[in-house]
Amino acid sequence: MGMTMNRGGKSDTPPPPALVRNPAHKPAPIPVDSYRNVLFPNAVRECRLAAGFSSLLALSARLPQIPYIRLSKIERGEVFARADELCMLARLLNVGEPAGLLADVDSPGFAIEAWAPAHGGSRPVNRTFEELAMLLGAALRRLRASHPGLTLARMLEDYRLPAVIVSRIENAVKPIDRWSPETIAALCALFEVTDREALIMLLWGEYEAGALDEWLARIPGAPEREARTRERIGALRTELARLKNWNVDEVLARPSARNAAAQGAAAGIAVASLQVVGVPLGEGLIEPFPNPQYVAPPLGSGPNCYALRMCRASLGPAIPGNAVLIVDPDQTPIDTGLCVLREQGALRVLALSVDREGRLVGHSSNPARDIILDDLPPADLARVTAVLFP
């Protein structure tokens, strides 16, 4: 690396004079969240050891429904577990109630500083690189705000930066040294600098000039992470209280979740109806649990179709959260349409397109996702044949 940085996180190379618009400005400290990746403190590790599983690999061998990598991330608190996963874990670990696997993060005795190291959920932090991640996120937010034409579509077309990568950069998800050379090259082109060293110099220069103060404050930090953790753990407690033995295959196979004239008539509905399923989970996922709403299926709907509530506007404002999708698992998704992807027992709605290599790609905007679908099992994909608006 051509330039060096001191331990305080400042470049030893002074910023270009043109960037120092206010030499007397004292830049605000750069907030670094040392536990950025710890979202879901839990008691899985303690219960695993108490149940006699000395290693996570031993537990994973008895629980093929949850891939080892995901199970490891759950135990380390890097991803939120779903209600069905907690039910399976509780059953295998002989935990009386699945909620016993949840941590009480509001307890006076809980401290993330103690929990994370004991669960492998923290690693040494290179503060300089973490600070650079924050500066890069702030600089990209500032650049896009000052250039309205720099849309996500243009970022992909002109700079080969997918929406999911843009989102991760703008939220400082990982330090700058962990981005691929391709991503760094794209960022250099975007910021019109020659290489990574020049990019880093630009970031420090804008920071020293005070140009990034406003945008640094917009990047979610520890308070937002903690609030999200409380919200999601609270939602999991509610789900577990309602859905103790939920199983997605059983739900979607129930006659009440499919075309069922008898059920519609019994409920006082004059036409053959589909009972709507859908309860929002985190990260844009939907739990296909039945709710009291029924809708009339469009003419030509297949015998195995079901009605799915969007729950959230994950594809943008064009399809609101209270819209209902008619989903036919017997039909193959097609380009420019919508599909539903089954992910670890939950469902995700995606808009479809074809990339430059001719691969079918599913997209969502909230959260930002770009998923290549060609290599996924066909049984995990279902075409959306109609969208019903309220």
Question: What secondary-structure arrangement, pairings included, does this model have?
Answer:
Layout: H1 44-50, H2 56-61, H3 68-76, H4 83-92, H5 112-118, H6 127-146, H7 152-159, H8 163-170, H9 181-191, H10 196-208, H11 213-216, H12 222-242, H13 248-253, H14 261-266, E1 274-280, E2 286-295, E3 306-309, E4 324-328, E5 338-343, E6 346-354, E7 360-365, E8 368-372, E9 381-388
Parallel strand pairs: 1-3
Antiparallel strand pairs: 1-2, 3-4, 4-9, 5-6, 5-9, 6-7, 7-8
Explain the overall architecture.
With 390 residues, the chain is of the alpha+beta class. Among the domains are: 125-216, 434 Repressor (Amino-terminal Domain) (Orthogonal Bundle), CATH 1.10.260; 254-388, Umud Fragment, subunit A. It is 35% helix and 15% strand. The protein is built from 14 helices and nine strands. Strands 2-1-3-4-9-5-6-7-8 form a nine-stranded mixed sheet. A hairpin with a 2-residue loop joins β7 and β8 (368-372). α6 (127-146) crosses α8 and α6 crosses α10 (196-208). Residues 1-23 and 254-272 have low confidence and may be disordered.
